[in-house]
């Protein structure tokens, strides 16, 4: 895989396609330098035959008629010590949408192909510059929505998770050597199995995998965030609570019941954790088709939520309508009762509920910080200790599934030994399955069919 080298040269715009100070067109492949020489001129309009490796050169990009498109800074980076492992060129122009597109079009006219989403990173992986975990980490960095998710992604890019996976693979490869020796020298089978301490090694590898899997629940939350649904009857202050948590006014707040007819979703960070706040339509008997659709969506979102904030207007008390809704939610372990409008005087208190409960004033912002802390405790999250940069963490469902597959194979192997089935051929089958699953995580086994799926989630130009 390290010897892989694409025959064609690719190009794409690597900066956001919008107005800005700078726009970058990136080229990678064997013809990168050749293409640069064709489209680049010095400021005086003369062709430039030599470009110093990794040094910015000032000049202009010209069209097919040698008319100037834009003033640029161009840099040539000779492979294999580049991001993709190939020759790479970057053209830095002014950041207008039209001018950057025109430069890209000019580059494509000289023999480059438009890159597919994530193709630059895919080439970096295929050329052995990074492993598959690190390639995925680049996309995680781009999509990070909080300080914590960024730290985890950077940690993955540095190779913290890869090194953990590789250490387990090394352990199993050593074990495989003992087992293959037993196959090659059958008369020494029992002695080799005992000498190699197969069971102990399997148990040690199993413990390491289980420890990694234990990080997934927290890792998923760091990467994807928490889904918090705000529910309740109309006009109890759900939208006011949403605005208080966002610390800005996004939802319409009026005294008219049923103002929120659709589901409103907003992103916010609580205690460093990314959160998806879902302000739902008030739950009641719908008065028209539009409101019924909104209420149906509310019920769907409540099923998906990690936390449900059931909001009550404490100034009017616990109404019959509140009770009907509460009866459908009270058995949910992640329900938090939020008694709102504390500033107006409360006719109901947290003492009246067995569920976790917080008294607030969304309008005045009172109790919002306490509510944030209660949400963290409800999910058993401690943001201060959730992630340590020295430790690896599983955030990807793909990694989780493959670790579980490897774990199951090792558990089967251990059971075989305990049942007295010590045939090295049988043990080798389970061991190979575990090694293959771990190899898939870092991209060293059976990943050809997955590459297009994984890299299709990247942006073009990365």
Automatic annotation (TrEMBL):
Organism from which the protein derives: Desulfurobacterium indicum
PROSITE patterns in UniProt: G_TRME
Binding-site positions, Mg(2+): 239, 260
SUPFAM superfamilies: P-loop containing nucleoside triphosphate hydrolases
Keyword Metal-binding: yes
Binding site for (6S)-5-formyl-5,6,7,8-tetrahydrofolate: 26, 90, 129, 462
Assembly behavior: Homodimer. Heterotetramer of two MnmE and two MnmG subunits.
Name the UniProt record assigns to this protein: tRNA modification GTPase MnmE
Keywords assigned: Cytoplasm, GTP-binding, Hydrolase, Magnesium, Metal-binding, Nucleotide-binding, Potassium, tRNA processing
Cellular compartments per GO CC: cytosol
EC number: 3.6.-.-
Segments forming domain TrmE-type G: 225-380
GO molecular function: GTP binding; GTPase activity; identical protein binding; metal ion binding
Cofactor(s) essential for the protein: K(+)
Subcellular location: Cytoplasm
InterPro entries, sorted: G_TrmE (IPR031168), GTP-bd (IPR006073), GTP-bd_TrmE_N (IPR018948), GTPase_MnmE (IPR004520), MnmE_dom2 (IPR027368), MnmE_helical (IPR025867), P-loop_NTPase (IPR027417), Small_GTP-bd (IPR005225)
Function per UniProt: Exhibits a very high intrinsic GTPase hydrolysis rate. Involved in the addition of a carboxymethylaminomethyl (cmnm) group at the wobble position (U34) of certain tRNAs, forming tRNA-cmnm(5)s(2)U34.
Cofactor annotation remark: Binds 1 potassium ion per subunit.
Keyword Phosphoprotein (UniProt): no
Class of this enzyme: hydrolase
Any Gene Ontology biological process: tRNA wobble uridine modification
Binding site for GTP: 235-240, 254-260, 279-282
Similarity comment text for this entry: Belongs to the TRAFAC class TrmE-Era-EngA-EngB-Septin-like GTPase superfamily. TrmE GTPase family.
Signal peptide residues on this chain, from the entry's feature table: none
Gene3D superfamilies associated with the record: P-loop containing nucleotide triphosphate hydrolases, Probable tRNA modification gtpase trme, domain 1, tRNA modification GTPase MnmE domain 2
Binding site residues for K(+): 235, 254, 256, 259
């Amino acid at each position: 895989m390290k010897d892989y080298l694409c025959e064609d040269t690719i190009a794409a715009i690597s900066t956001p396609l919008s107005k800005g100070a700078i726009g970058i067109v990136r080229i990678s492949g064997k013809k990168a330098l050749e293409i640069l020489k064709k489209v680049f001129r010095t400021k005086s309009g003369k062709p430039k035959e030599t470009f110093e490796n990794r040094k910015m050169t000032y000049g202009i990009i010209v069209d097919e008629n040698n008319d100037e498109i834009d003033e640029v800074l161009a840099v040539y980076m000779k492979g294999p010590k580049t991001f993709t492992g190939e020759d790479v060129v970057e053209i830095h122009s002014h950041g207008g949408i039209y001018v950057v597109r025109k430069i890209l079009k000019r580059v494509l006219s000289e023999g480059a192909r438009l890159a597919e989403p994530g193709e630059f990173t895919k080439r970096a992986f295929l050329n052995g510059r990074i492993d598959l975990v690190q390639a995925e980490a680049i996309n995680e960095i781009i999509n990070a929505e909080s300080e914590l998710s960024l730290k985890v992604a950077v940690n993955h890019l540095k190779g913290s998770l890869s090194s953990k996976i590789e250490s387990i693979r090394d352990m199993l490869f050593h074990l495989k050597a003992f087992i293959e020796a037993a196959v090659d020298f059958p008369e020494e089978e029992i002695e080799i199995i005992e000498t190699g301490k197969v069971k102990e090694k399997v148990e040690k590898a199993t413990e390491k995998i289980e420890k990694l899997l234990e990080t997934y629940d927290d890792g998923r939350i760091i990467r994807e965030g928490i889904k918090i649904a705000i529910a309740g009857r109309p006009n109890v202050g759900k939208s006011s609570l949403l605005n208080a948590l966002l610390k800005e006014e996004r939802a319409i707040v009026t005294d008219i019941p049923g103002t929120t007819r659709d589901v409103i979703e907003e992103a916010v960070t609580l205690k460093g954790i990314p959160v998806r706040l879902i302000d739902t339509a008030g739950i009641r008997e719908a008065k028209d088709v539009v409101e019924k659709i909104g209420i149906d969506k509310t019920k769907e979102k409540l099923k998906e939520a990690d936390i449900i904030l059931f909001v009550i207007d404490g100034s009017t008390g616990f109404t019959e309508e509140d009770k009907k809704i509460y009866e459908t939610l009270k058995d949910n372990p992640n329900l938090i009762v939020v008694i709102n409008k504390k500033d107006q005087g409360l006719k109901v208190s947290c003492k009246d509920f067995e569920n976790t409960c917080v008294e607030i004033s969304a309008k005045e912002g009172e109790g919002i910080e306490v509510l944030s802390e209660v949400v963290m405790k409800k999910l058993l999250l401690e943001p201060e200790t959730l992630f340590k940069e020295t430790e690896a963490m599983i955030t990807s469902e793909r990694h989780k599934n493959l670790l579980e597959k490897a774990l199951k194979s090792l558990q089967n192997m251990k059971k075989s030994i305990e049942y007295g089935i010590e045939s090295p051929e049988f043990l080798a089958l389970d061991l190979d399955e575990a090694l293959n699953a771990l190899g898939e995580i870092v991209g060293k086994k059976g990943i050809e069919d997955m590459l297009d799926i994984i890299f299709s989630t990247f942006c073009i130009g990365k």
